[in-house]
Amino acid sequence: MNAPTGTPEPHEPPHEPPPGLRGVVVTTTGLGDVRGEEGFFHYRQYSAVDLARTRTVEDVWFLLHRGHLPSAAELTAFRAEVAPLRVLPPVLADVLPALAAAGGPPLAGLRTALSLLGAAEGARPVLDLTPQQRAADALRVCALVPTVLAALHRTRVGLAPVAPREDLDAAANWLWMLTGAQAPPAHVRALRRYLVATVDHGFNASTFTARVVASTGADVVAAVVAALGAFSGPLHGGAPDRALAALEEIGHPDRAAAWVHGQLAAGRRVMGFGHAVYRTADPRSVLLRETALELGGELGERAVAVEERVVAALAEAKPGRALHANVEYYAGVVMATCGVPPELFTPTFATSRVVGWCAHVLEQAGDPRIVRPSARYTGPPAPAPVP
Fold this sequence. Notes:
The protein is mainly alpha-helical. It has 2 domains: 32-233 and 343-365, Orthogonal Bundle (Citrate Synthase, domain 1), CATH 1.10.580; 240-337, CATH 1.10.230.10. Helices cover 56% and strands 3% of the residues. It has 17 helices and 3 strands. Strands 1-2-3 form a 3-stranded antiparallel sheet. A hairpin with a 2-residue loop joins strand 2 (40-43) and strand 3 (46-47). Helix 6 packs antiparallel against helix 11 (220-231) and helix 8 crosses helix 9 (185-197). The longest helix is centred in the middle third of the chain and has 26 residues, at 131-156. The protein is globular and about 55 Å long.
C-alpha cells in the first residue's frame, strides 16, 4: 500500500491527556477505591482505616482474595493453609548467599528470587489456569514474599535466616523473622495497623503495572515482579526512608520552615508531604500519627511538631494548594520505633502490598481483553521522504 499523501482534513485537535493520567478511568474494580476529595479509602465495602484498627493482615487478605471477611473458623483454616506456604523452599535458600553478596536493595534480590521461584515451580500463564489455580499461585507468592525479604536481610548482615512461626500473624511474623525475637505487643499492633492500611490503594503505579502484565495472560509471578519494579521507585514505594531522612535532616522543629524554603528554592521535593490523589489529610497518615504517639518516644513527638511547621511553610510558599503529610511521613516513624531499619521500610511496605497486587491480578485475569492504551503522537509530521 502506498503511503498516504496530501494534506489531512482539518479537524478539532484532541484534548491534551492529563499529566500522569490523573483521573482517567481505565477499568472497573470491586476491590476498593480512594476518594481523594473526602480523605477516605476502602477495601471492598469496609473503611480501610477501620480495618487497620480492628483486623489483621490475614483478615484483609481473605477479604480481597475471597470476597468477604472471614469468620473465626474461616480465619483459622486460612492461617493453616498459608502457614506451610511461608516456608522458604530449598531452591531459594540455596541462592540466598549469592543474592545477598550481590548487594543492591532488598527489592532487587526479591525480584530475582521470585523469578527463580516461578521457573522452579513452573508458574503458568493465568490465561491457561482455572480461577482456583490462579488463586493458589497468588496465595503462594503472598505467603512467601515476607520470608524471602527477611531471609535476604539477615543473610546480608551475616545472620542465619529465621523460619516463620505458625502461631504468629503476618505482622508478628515479620518482626520475628527480622530479629529472631518476639516483638512487644505494642510494636506488633502498630506494625499491623501499618500493614493493613497499605495492602491496597487504588490504581497506583505498581498496581496498574501488575494489572497490565496480567492482562497479557502472563503468570502471577511475572505480574508481581513487574509491580515490584514500579514499586521500587523513590516516588512510590521507595519514599518512607527518604521521608524519615528529611525529618532527621530538619532536626529541631524550629528549623523546619527554613528547610522547606531551602528545598523549594533548590527545586527539590519535600518528601513525605503532598499526594497525587488526596486533597485533604491522608487518612493513613492520620492513623499512623496517632499510632506513633501511642508508641511514645521522642521521635514521634518531634515528627508531629515538625509536621505542623512544614505544613505551615508549604501553605505560605504554595498558597491555594493543600499539602499535608502523606503515609510515608509517619510510616518511617512507626517502623523505626518498632525496630525496623530504614533499608527495610520499603520491603516492609511490599510485604503487605503484594496482597493487593495479587488481588488485582486475579481480578484482571477474569477480563479477556489486553490493556492497550493509545498515545497521541507529537513528533515531526509523517510521512516524510527517507533521505
